[in-house]
């Protein structure tokens, strides 16, 4: 097992930017990957689904090449800087759909894989195709973890007529009500929060930080001790992302050591073509091998210094969700890629958020 570096990342708050200083690249066993699924079914929305057969292929590959760890173990070790099993993977689902129990659970149980489901307590047992509390408790007895996906699965960035203080108070109630019900029903509180639709902004992140929660998004990337614990990335692995060949690269990915605070992902209607600057730790990355992509197309990277580069989107964003992914192979192992994702969330002209 790789030795722990003498000095782990040190967080410095300078001029409103979060910077991370490292003495050496983190050992590979300090990086982990979190996968995100929704439906395992052939009769659910294609964008968030994959078939049981394809899911079984994913799990068999993981069983052959990776080590699945419970999400709480991965988060605890990442936060404390402890080594993980080599090529550690945690498996998560968003929304408490019954097809998880029917189609995914038997496959996961066959491999002895632990996993976590982020659920909306107000919807459990009350909406069609959702798990019941009896099923949740049955799965809990078989080792499944359950965590907070807010109480009602709404777009958290919706403000309506609320001012900022009212909106944050509403979100606080939505989060804490769900957590209290989970603790009442299951007997524990992980204080994890997966953002519905993966949508968040800096104000929401600050609330999550103040409440003592760990936040999970839906943007791509691996996690490491220097990751932002209010918006941890997870690789979506269903729909257009279900291809096993591309998933193999993601499963072996490393968390890119970005040294500047990411851009606020919520964009206003008058700022739809953002330009931003990023600094990365290049001790295990060759800058010339860095590539950034938007909707599958490469972006022009403007290097301002040997470790600082800027990006500009080629056209204005429309309403919905988008992301820019940047990757670079590790110098130590060219088969493993550092990965960083900048998400963007844009409302409609009427201020609504798209499903």
TrEMBL record:
What processes in GO biological process is this protein linked to? carbohydrate metabolic process
Extract the PROSITE patterns matched here.
NODB
What is the designated name of this protein? Polysaccharide deacetylase family protein
Residues of the signal sequence? 1-23
One family name in Pfam for this protein: Polysacc_deac_1
Q: Where does the record place it?
A: Secreted
SUPFAM superfamilies (alphabetical): Glycoside hydrolase/deacetylase (SSF88713)
Q: Which InterPro entries match?
A: Glyco_hydro/deAcase_b/a-brl, NODB_dom, Polysacch_Deacetylase
What does the UniProt keyword field contain?
Signal
Which part of the chain is the NodB homology domain?
87-355
| Keyword RNA-binding among record annotations | no
What CDD domains would the database entry show?
CE4_DAC_u4_5s
What cellular component terms from Gene Ontology apply here? Answer: extracellular region
Q: Name one GO molecular function term.
A: hydrolase activity, acting on carbon-nitrogen (but not peptide) bonds
